[in-house]
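Entry 12.
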Amino acid sequence: MPHCSGGRAAYQQLRKPPQPETGGTARSFFFHCLAWLATITMVGGCDGSWSAWAELYQDAPWCAPNTHSRIFRRTGSSMGVPTGQVAFTDRSGHKKNTAAFQDELNTYFVDCKFTKGWPEFGVAGNYRPLIAPFRFHFVSMDPVVIVGVAKEDPTDTNPDYLYTGQHTFIGTNYINDAFQAGTTFPYRPGAKVVWFSPAVDHDLHDIDLASRTARIALAGSEFLTISVDGSQLVTSRQ
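Predicted 3D structure (tokens):
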């Protein structure tokens, strides 16, 4: 999902209650257009040349022990429409398009069982995105690890807190809310915290923060540490 500064106005349309399927033509068309533009953007179709990659100095996910990824963006146009690409660097410094992570999450959610019972947000082309009871955060790549913090209102679809212009987001066709990339994020004391990883299994795992810190085992001897720091959660990767 491209960097979302400036995306708030468009997302406001998504905050409106979904229309019944028989009357949701405008909404479906809107989502279809977004999906079409995203496909063109991420696959790389471009009328002319791309601009040079420019670094976005933002909080980025872990890509290796004690190493943050770096975020880059470039712009171009497709069929006369301005478009862009966003990429994270891996542990070798190679850029990995965010479309690859979106594809990984889309494949993952096809077989997910823990989303059963989550309410539908509406119709988005051929998909029915769900309203997650958590704010999800994209904290690690290679492997991908997502951490979720329970919302005060499980059915809240208001994304205003996200759109500060200081973050990049990863989207999936199956969840309405985008996943904020980064290693530090808001936390409400006492809120339930969970994690999942396409590289591990299709389960949603609880994180016990009774001692104010917890670990998530990764491949080999690597692990993520999650710690409570006032009104935020701070992660590290060793």
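Annotation: The CA atoms of residues 93 and 170 lie 20 Å apart. The radius of gyration is 18 Å.
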